[in-house]
Amino acid sequence: MASLAGGISIRANASRAFSRLGRELGVSSIVATHLRRYKSSLSTTSPPPKLSLPRPSHNYRIPIRLFSTSPRASSSPKFTYGISASYCAKENRYSPTKNLTPFNPYNAIPVPLKPADRRPASGQDAFFVAPISNTSDIAIGIADGVGGWIDSGVDPSDFSHGFCEYMAHTASLSNEIDEVPISARRLMQKGYDLICASGKVRAGGSTAVVGIFNSGGNMEVANLGDSGYIQLRSGASGTGGGYETGGEIWGEQLMDLPRDAEVVSKELKHGDVVVFATDGVWDNLSGGDVLRIVSKRMRYEKAWVNGVEDKGTEVGEKLGELIEEGGVEGKDKGMLSLQSSLAVDIAGEAKAASLSLRRDGPFAREVQRRYPDEKWSGGKSDDICVVVVVAVEEGK
Length: 396
Description:
Elements: H1 14-17, E1 23-24, E2 30-35, E3 42-43, E4 67-68, E5 79-88, E6 100-102, E7 125-131, E8 138-145, H2 156-177, H3 184-198, E9 205-213, E10 218-224, E11 228-232, E12 243-244, E13 262-267, E14 273-277, H4 279-282, H5 287-300, E15 304-306, E16 313-315, H6 319-322, E17 328-329, E18 335-336, H7 338-355, H8 362-370, E19 384-393
Antiparallel strand pairs: 1-12, 2-11, 3-9, 4-5, 5-6, 5-19, 7-8, 8-9, 9-10, 10-13, 11-14, 14-19, 15-16, 17-18
Helix pairs in contact: 2-3, 5-7
C-alpha cells in the first residue's frame, strides 16, 4: 500500500514517514536498481463523484508460455523472456500455488475495469504483462494504490488495478492506433488518461513502475513513486557491500503525473534477472536480500554456475530449458518454470519478513535510526507484488 495521496500530510508518524533508505546492495551482481527514496504517486485530487484532475497530456490461471521475441534486424540478437508474477494481499496467507501467475503472450488481454472478484488477490497492488501490438516487444508494469483514499470512502485498489488494465490494453493495441512507438512513460501516461476519462473510478492514486522489453535485449523503465526494480547478473565472485541512500522522503503535497516519472534505459544480457516489486517487498527485503534469494535459486537450478577455475559465475548451458514449463520442481513437487520459482521465493520471503516481530528490514532499520523513541522492530505488513523477468538470448 502506498501511503501518500496528493494533499495528504505524511508527517503524522514514523511508520508512514519512512520507507527504504540505506538499501544494502551486493555490488558485483546488481547491475541496476531503481528504488526511489521518497514517496510520490499518480493521484486524482477531487472528491467523488467526478474527477477533477491536472490536465492529462486478473485473477485467472494460465499455462506457462514464453514471451518469444523476434529481432527487428537480422544482425540483432533474439531474446526470449520468461515472466511470472507472485503476490499476496496484506490480510491473506501466502500460497505459492494460488498466488502465482505465469504469463502467456497469446492470451487475450481482458477488457479494462474487471470486477473486483476477477482481479488477482494482490490487494491494492496490481500488475500487468502485455505484448505490444505488431512488434515482438513486451510491456510490464506494477502499481501500488495509495491507501490514504480509504479515509474518503474510496477503494484504492480500483485505481491501481484499473490503471494496470488500461496500460495492458493500450500496449496490446498501441501500434494499431498510434504511429509513434510506445515508450514506458507514454504507456504510463495513456493508462492514466484512460482511467481518468473512464468515469468509473471515483478517485484514487498509485505509484507505478513500467518497463518495455524489446527483442534486441534492451529495456526502458519509467518509475514514479516508491515501487522499484532491480537488475541482477551473474558476475565476479564476492558480493562486496554498499549502501544506496537518499534524502528526505516526505512532502506536504505529492501530486506527480506520468510526465514526472524517471526513465532509464538498460542493456540486458543472457541470464539477467529483473525484479519489479512494490514497497511491500522493498520495505522488508534489501537489495542484498533479493540478490541472495535469486542467486540461491539460480545456482540450485544451475542457471548460474561457477566460472572457469571457480572464478566468479557464468550462465548455465540449460537456461533456455529452465524457463520452459516444468523446467524446475516446485516446493509442492509440482513442475514450474525458473521465473515462477524465483517469483515465489521472493514473494514468500517478503511475506514472512513482513510478519516477523524480530527480523528488521530496511523500513524498521531506518525508523530505528531516525526515530528511536518509536521502538519499532520487525517487519512492515503490506500488500506484496513481484514480477520476475529472466532474459535468454538465442544461441547461448
